[in-house]
Write a sequence for this structure.
């Protein structure tokens, strides 16, 4: 084992210990007895919420240096150590469990141990997941380099709550990528322990152990838990909220609701959709308490707000959207186009699955569309309905149903993970009077979930654990060598690191492992700025986006101060209204554009200048479905004589000619129609359009372009880089890095 491997393990252990220590401090204040089995998982997850908030504070104050992080972590552990005697006083040995009296438990433990070794090695190996090596840890790395938060407007994921990533940041600072993955894996252990403890609380350890293994062994859980993702964290938080509510219901100690509130807020900070546990908790307490509600409900809400509001305030300050990126259609900003979220959401609702009726089989057996499987054993999930005859079963199913409500907004298999603990526990509880039946379910699930067995029935490209990379985990194989053969996009990231100077930005036509480079990589779809640059590149090569049509509106000459082109039609869901140039003329002569002109548009007013920049390589777009009332407006600042309006557009925009009209504002301040039904004319495309597109990148401060083979425009760029004004400087795998030539940029 190398020093690096030990450092990775130590960094993850630092986070786990700090979280557990913080949790014991909070629990000591709650003054509630906990059993030995439930103490660690509940304290660890509760402490994670507290450590996350401390990390947020350090980042917000720009104090996130390594010494400050160590002081915070060791200070928390020291405080817990000095108060350990008080914590022991409130510890209760409520459950009785004997290995000799429960010999079948040895079988459960052996299965757990075998899969734990498999998972541990995969989590310990260099981080090779797409999103983990991408935005999850990219954002962590960027914040650590800056010692705090700063506006990141070119990556829509920067607006998401980063409750789990704050813990990853503490691990990443000392152990880099793999340490973050190990922290995520620790939540899988904690979740399994919490489920076992709940079974002990019910007096049926096999119910808890069986349910814990149904979740723990699930192929998608195993894969997710061993990467720097966040879904298992969300599941552990949700189940902890449920558990603390059960403790409160039994003890009626209202201090317990502090833990519930903190965790409910932390659920939001970790994953927006997990916030459904907050109304669940409030409704649960209101229903069970009914009287003297105000104080406990306020306390719970205040604790939740302490976790939620910092992230909302950060997003409001940096992105002008407190629920970024999902508030783009409400809190309109220049950083994200409405269509980006709409198209993303539409894909997540169906994953290109042609028939949603196949979803159950795809989730459990095939995984061809939903990127993972939960395992064939969950085809027996309807068994859980038999648990309705028990009070605990009804509560489990209700909590599971609540966590399931956001699922159909994203039907990927891993987005079921937060629901699985509740439904798995209800399944084993339903047959809890038949311990052998529970054991049979677990044994079948273990066999079906083993990597070798998965290959016999699931999709060959299934997102799951496939290998046992012990050499990479122990540092005997170099991280670079392992990642070059295991992670697509890694070689590109290292190429950018080697060939792009510090301070330069790169436009990437596709996702890469951005956390493995310190350069600012603009992934084409992740922000409005990136999309504008990408649109210019596409205009350069794609005939359908080039300005080839002019819509000419004629009307009797009149003095006009304010004029607009108005959209009057409701168009299809997958089209946009775009304008390359908008020109005003008198007697065939264009009015000279002036800085006195005030330009406005709805929607997307921030980009309206693109319709007045005299560049064929740019265009203003609605970036959402065209609808009546959308417009581009010009205030000349004074009366100007106009008799013609020309709208330069793509061939696709010819379709919109019947839905556009020109309006002018009269002396009474009322808009009146002055022209519609425009004349169509062809427009010659300049032969220097490609170079004009590259100029737009250069003018925006981007001098490098990463093009992956097979991406739109890759062949055109590779065939004649001189026509574009670029030169190929390096290749990695199937990607080419281009540098913009600085001479003769403007045609």
């Amino acid at each position: 084992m190398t020093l690096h491997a030990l450092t990775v393990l130590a960094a993850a252990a630092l986070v786990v210990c700090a979280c557990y220590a913080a949790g014991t401090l909070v629990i000591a204040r709650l003054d509630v007895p906990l059993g030995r089995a439930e103490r660690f998982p509940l304290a660890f997850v509760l402490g994670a919420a507290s450590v996350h908030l401390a990390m947020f504070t350090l980042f917000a104050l720009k104090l996130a240096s390594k010494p400050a992080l160590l002081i915070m972590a060791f200070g928390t552990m020291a405080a817990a150590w000095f108060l350990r005697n008080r914590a022991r006083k409130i510890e209760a040995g409520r459950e009785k469990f004997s290995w000799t009296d429960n010999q079948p438990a040895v079988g459960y433990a052996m299965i757990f141990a075998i899969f734990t070794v498999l998972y541990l090695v995969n989590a310990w190996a260099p981080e090779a997941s797409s999103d983990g090596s991408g935005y999850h840890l990219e954002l962590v790395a960027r914040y650590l380099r800056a010692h705090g938060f700063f506006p990141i407007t070119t990556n829509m994921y920067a607006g998401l709550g980063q409750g789990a990533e704050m813990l990853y940041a503490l691990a990443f600072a000392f152990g880099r990528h793999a340490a973050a993955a190990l922290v995520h894996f620790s939540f899988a252990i904690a979740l399994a322990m919490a489920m076992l403890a709940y079974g002990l609380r019910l007096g049926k350890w096999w119910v808890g152990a069986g349910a814990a293994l149904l979740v723990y062994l699930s192929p998608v859980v195993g894969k997710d838990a061993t990467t720097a993702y966040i879904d298992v964290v969300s599941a552990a938080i949700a189940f902890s909220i449920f558990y603390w509510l059960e403790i409160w219901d039994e003890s009626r100690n209202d201090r317990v609701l502090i833990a519930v509130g903190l965790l409910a807020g932390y659920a939001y900070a970790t994953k927006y959709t997990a916030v459904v546990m907050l109304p669940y908790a409030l409704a649960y307490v209101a229903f069970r308490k009914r009287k003297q509600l105000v104080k406990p409900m306020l306390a719970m809400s205040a604790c939740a707000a302490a976790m939620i509001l910092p992230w909302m305030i950060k997003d409001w300050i940096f992105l002008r959207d407190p629920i970024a990126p999902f508030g783009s259609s409400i809190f309109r900003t220049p950083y994200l186009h409405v269509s980006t979220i709409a198209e993303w959401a539409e894909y997540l609702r169906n994953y290109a699955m042609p028939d949603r009726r196949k979803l159950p089989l795809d989730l459990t057996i095939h995984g061809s569309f939903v990127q993972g499987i939960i395992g064939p054993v969950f085809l027996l999930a309807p068994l859980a309905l038999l648990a309705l005859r028990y009070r605990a079963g009804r509560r489990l199913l209700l909590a599971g149903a609540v966590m399931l409500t956001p699922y159909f907004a994203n039907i990927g298999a891993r987005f079921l993970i937060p629901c699985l603990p509740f439904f798995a526990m209800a399944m084993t509880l339903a047959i809890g009077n038949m311990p052998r039946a529970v054991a049979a379910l677990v044994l079948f699930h273990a066999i079906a979930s083993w990597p070798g067995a998965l290959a016999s029935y699931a999709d060959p490209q299934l997102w799951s654990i496939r290998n046992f990379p012990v050499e990479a985990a122990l540092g005997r194989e170099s991280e670079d060598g392992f990642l070059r053969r295991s992670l697509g996009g890694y070689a590109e990231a290292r190429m950018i690191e080697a060939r792009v100077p510090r301070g330069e930005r790169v436009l990437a036509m596709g996702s890469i492992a951005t956390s493995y480079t310190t350069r600012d990589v603009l992934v084409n779809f992740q922000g409005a700025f990136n999309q504008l640059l990408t649109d210019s590149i596409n205009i350069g090569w794609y005939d359908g986006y080039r300005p080839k049509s002019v819509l000419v509106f004629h009307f009797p000459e009149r003095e006009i101060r304010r004029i607009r082109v108005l959209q009057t039609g409701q168009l299809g869901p997958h089209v946009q209204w775009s304008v390359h140039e908008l020109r005003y003329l008198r007697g065939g002569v264009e009015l000279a554009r002036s800085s006195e002109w005030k330009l406005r548009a709805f929607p997307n007013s921030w980009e309206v200048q693109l319709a007045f920049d005299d560049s064929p390589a740019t265009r203003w777009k609605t970036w959402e479905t065209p609808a009546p009332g959308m417009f581009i407006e010009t205030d000349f600042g004074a009366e100007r004589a106009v008799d013609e309006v020309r709208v330069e557009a793509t061939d696709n925009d010819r379709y919109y000619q019947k839905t556009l009209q020109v309006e002018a504002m009269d002396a009474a301040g009322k808009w009146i129609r002055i022209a519609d039904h425009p004349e169509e004319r062809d427009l010659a495309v300049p032969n220097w359009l490609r170079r004009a597109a590259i100029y737009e990148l250069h003018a925006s401060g981007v001098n490098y372009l990463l093009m992956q083979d097979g991406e739109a425009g890759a062949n055109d760029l590779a065939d004649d880089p001189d026509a574009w004004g670029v030169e190929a400087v390096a290749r990695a795998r199937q990607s080419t890095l281009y540098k913009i030539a600085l001479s003769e940029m403007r045609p």
Observations:
- The mean pLDDT is 94.
- Residues 547-682 form one domain.
- The radius of gyration is 29 Å.
